[in-house]
Inverse folding.
C-alpha cells in the first residue's frame, strides 16, 4: 500500500505540480490540499511546497502561517499523525509558525540566487537546485546550541551561497518528524530536469519514506 502525501497549496504556491510529480515518482499517492482545509488526518506526509505564499508580503511565510491548514498542521504534528516537509517557501512557513527553530532572512548578497548547489546530506555529497532571495538561515547562540544538541542540521551547504549561519541548508526535528530545507529536491528527481542528470532529490524522498515507516 502506497504512503499518502498531501501538498498544501497557498495563493502564490508555484511548485506544487513539480512536487507532486516527484512524490508520485518516488512511490507516494499524492493529493493537493487547499490552504483552507483543516482535515489532514488521512495523510502520512504533509508537504508545504515552494513558491511565494500570499506573494511573500510582509515577509516570506508570514501570512501563510495564519492559514487554517497551518493551524491544523500544528495539531497533526502535536498528535504525531505523520511526517511534515517544507521545501523553500515551505521551510520559511515552518520557521514563521515556530514549528522549526530559527528564521530565514534575506541572502547576504541581497540578490535572488538560482543555482545548482553542492550540499552535504547526512554526511554524503549531493547536488540540488536552489532558488530563493530569503534563504539565509539565522539563529541566535542558544537556538544554534539546541540545533546542535538535537542533531537537526541534516543538510548543509558546501559553498554557502547565501550566508546561512553554520552553512545550514535544512533542519530535521526527528522527535516530531518535521523537515525543512531551502534547496529543491523535487527538481532533481526526473533525470531530464536534474542538475547534470544527477537525481539526488530521490535520496531526500527515499530518506523521508524510511523515516515515516520507522
Amino acid at each position: 500500500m502506497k504512503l499518502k502525501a498531501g501538498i498544501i497549496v497557498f495563493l502564490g504556491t508555484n511548485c506544487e505540480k513539480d512536487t507532486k510529480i516527484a512524490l508520485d515518482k518516488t512511490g507516494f499517492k499524492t493529493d493537493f490540499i487547499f490552504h483552507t482545509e483543516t482535515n489532514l488526518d488521512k495523510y502520512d506526509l504533509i508537504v508545504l511546497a515552494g513558491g511565494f505564499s500570499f506573494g511573500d508580503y510582509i515577509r516570506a511565510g508570514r501570512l501563510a502561517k495564519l492559514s487554517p491548514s497551518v493551524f491544523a498542521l500544528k495539531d497533526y504534528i502535536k498528535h504525531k499523525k505523520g511526517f511534515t516537509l517544507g521545501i523553500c517557501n515551505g521551510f520559511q512557513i515552518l520557521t514563521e509558525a515556530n514549528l522549526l527553530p530559527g528564521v530565514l532572512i534575506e541572502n547576504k548578497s541581497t540578490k535572488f540566487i538560482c543555482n545548482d548547489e553542492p550540499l552535504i546530506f547526512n554526511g554524503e555529497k549531493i547536488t540540488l537546485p536552489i532558488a530563493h532571495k530569503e534563504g539565509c538561515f539565522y539563529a541566535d547562540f542558544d537556538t544554534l546550541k539546541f540545533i546542535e544538541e538535537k542533531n537537526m542540521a541534516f543538510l548543509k551547504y558546501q559553498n554557502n551561497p547565501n550566508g546561512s549561519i553554520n552553512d545550514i541548508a535544512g533542519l530535521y526535528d526527528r522527535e516530531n518528524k518535521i523537515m525543512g530545507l531551502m534547496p529543491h529536491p523535487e527538481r532533481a528527481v526526473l533525470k531530464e530536469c536534474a542538475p547534470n542528470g544527477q537525481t539526488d532529490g530521490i535520496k531526500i524522498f527515499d530518506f523521508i519514506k524510511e523515516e515515516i515507516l520507522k
Notes: The mean pLDDT is 96. The chain has five helices and eleven strands.
